[in-house]
Amino acid sequence: MVEKISSLKDRLNGKIIVIGIGNIIKGDDGVGPSLISCLKGKIEADVIDCGTAPENYTATIRRKGPNTIVIVDAVDLKLKPGAIRIVDPNEIKDETFSTHNISLKTFAGFIKTEANATVVIIGVQPERVSFGLPLSDCANRSVGSLVNEFTKLIPKRQEACTA
Predict the structure, then answer these.
(1) What DSSP string runs through 100-132?
(2) pLDDT digits (tens, 9 = 90+) for 2-57
(3) Residue 85 is inside which H or E element, if any?
(4) Measured distance CA(105)–CA(124) in Å, rounded
(5) How wide is the angle at C-alpha 39 spanned by C-alphas 34 and 45, nearest 5°?
(6) CB 119, CB 69: distance < 8 Å
(7) d(C-alpha 125, C-alpha 114), whole Å
(8) What is the pLDDT of residues 72-107, one digit of tens each?
(9) What domains appear along the chain, each with residue ranges and CATH number?
(10) Helix then strand then coil, % of the chain, to nearest 5
(11) The pTM is what?
């Protein structure tokens, strides 16, 4: 099942970690890491660029003790390029989409169990995933939309002034 991104606010609870998965030198497959780069320091959540080996970050994620883990990755949703959706992990084929060492479905199930957290997968429909290409214009717009959405839903707390 694929859901619109508007239901994201209902899924974010407690301590949140946002992770991006993908390869920045493989076109739109780099949408996850690109989002993480844009979110650093802008939201009240930990953000982690897992690149193409998210399994290497499971201990780090577990140590942070999240209640909710949001995974952002390029996913073939069979939609218009740049489309953004919340994806049910059970609807993802248990295969790697690109250069990932582990399938998104397998990683989501594993990290859910390891961290004892709710896992939300946000998929962005890629236009192109060839080596040596930058993000497409539609993927860049999707990253911008996601930055806007995350900064509204998880705003950075203002530090109290102590004089």
Answers:
(1) -SS-HHHHHHHHHHHHT-EEEEEEE--S---TT
(2) 567 878 999 999 999 999 999 999 999 999 999 999 999 999 999 999 999 999 99
(3) strand 84-87
(4) 15
(5) 130
(6) yes
(7) 28
(8) 999 998 999 999 999 987 777 654 444 456 788 899
(9) 20-153 (3.40.50.1450)
(10) 40, 20, 40
(11) 0.90
